[in-house]
Each structure stands twice: as structure tokens, then as C-alpha cells.
Amino acid sequence: MPDRFCRYWNCTSAAAHARRRQRRCFLSAQAAAAGAFALRLVWQDACESGNAVIDREHEELFGLANGLIDGAAHAEEDPATLPAALDELLGHGQRHFAAEEGILAELQYADLQQHKRAHAGLLRRAGFLKDQVDAGKANLGAVVRFLAQDVVARHMMAVDRAFFPLFGRSAAGAVEYTLH
Questions:
Q1: CA 89, 50, 145, 126 torsion: positive or negative?
Q2: From CA 76, how far away is CA 72, in angstroms rounded?
Q3: Are 72 and 82 in contact (CB under 8 A)?
Q4: Beta bridge partners of 43
């Protein structure tokens, strides 16, 4: 089984911004495929909730997020790539949130309403990013900050971890957020 643990990389203004604010990024410098930007979000086994549907959708989200990072990195060469990648990510996010909320409702998750509000907040921030992209005002740093900080670090690794015990996983995960 390949090593799925992330090596963190201090490489961009987003990483420097995160360090200044005592936040941590979930980024990796990997050998990129031809044409792909080298800055990647990397799925870790430690990110798994224990629910196969949620975990598959979260891992798919990482792939779509990397497509969005690539689109932002190459926006000058192909301006249509970034809006298309963002639309794909937003569609997946909306479907995923509905599915996740349905699963949590079936299990009578006590904090479901709070979780729904967190999802609504992410969608609002994603909508703001979309407005910035459509206006030609979003840059790579804005995209990376939204994905690494808002989606992964604050939501998936904090808010979502609260429901992991429903699936037999610890809410206090072993994911370390340090920058090298």
C-alpha cells in the first residue's frame, strides 16, 4: 500500500500567510504529473471517518480541489479552466453535503443543525470565491487558502471529526498540521 501520509511544504504565499496566522496548511510538494501544478492536497488514511460513502466523497473532493489548484495556477494560459474546475467542485460539494447530512440524520447526530450551518457557511464562502473568479479577481493564493484552510483544516479536520465517533473513529485524530 502506498504511503498516503502528507509531507507538508512551505512554498507559497498561502503557506507564509498561514504561518503568520498560526494556521496550518495541508499541502504537499510531490512530483506532479505532466501539466499539473506541483502544489497538491494529499488525502491521508488518518482523514477517514469510518463511513465508506463520506470517505470516498472526501477523497474525491481532494482530487477536485487539486484540479482547482491546477486551474488557478494555469489561469493565464487557459482562463476557462479555473471557472470550470470551481463549478465542478461546487457541484460535488453540494451533493456531498446533502449526502453527508442525510447519513448524519439517519444516525440522529446530535449536532446536525450546527453541521448544516457549517456547510452553508462553506457554500457561502465558495460562492464568494466563485464571484471573485468570475470577475477575474481570484488568484492562486485565494484558491489555496479556501481549500487548505477553510475546507480541509477548519471543516474536514475539525468540524467533521466531531462525527467520527458515530463510525467508531476517534474525534481526536492523528493528523499533524505542521509546515516544513
A1: positive
A2: 8
A3: yes
A4: none
Alpha-carbon gap, residue 87 to 75, rounded angstroms:
15
Residues 6+ apart with CB under 8 A from 142: 72, 129, 132
Q: Nine-digit cell at 148?
A: 487548505
Tens of pLDDT, residues 104-147: 999 999 999 999 999 999 999 999 999 999 998 888 888 888 98
Contact 93, 122 (CB under 8 A): yes
Q: Domains of the chain: which residue ranges?
A: 13-167
What's the pLDDT at 173? 54
H or E segment and range at residue 128: helix 112-134
Q: Is 39 helix (H, G, I), strand (E, B) or coil?
A: strand
3-state class (DSSP) for residue 140: helix
How far apart (Å, rounded) are the C-alpha atoms in residues 133 and 84? 10
Helices 81-106 & 112-134, crossing angle to 10 degrees? 170
Question: For 38-79, how does the pLDDT look when each residue is reduced to its tens digit (9 = 90+)?
Answer: 678 888 888 899 999 999 999 999 999 988 888 888 888 888
Query: What 3-state class would DSSP assign to 40?
Result: strand
| Homologous superfamily of domain range 13-167 | Hemerythrin-like (1.20.120.50)
Angle among Cα 45, 43, 122 to the nearest 5 degrees reads 115
DSSP assignment of 17-35, as one string? HHHHTT----EEE--PPTT
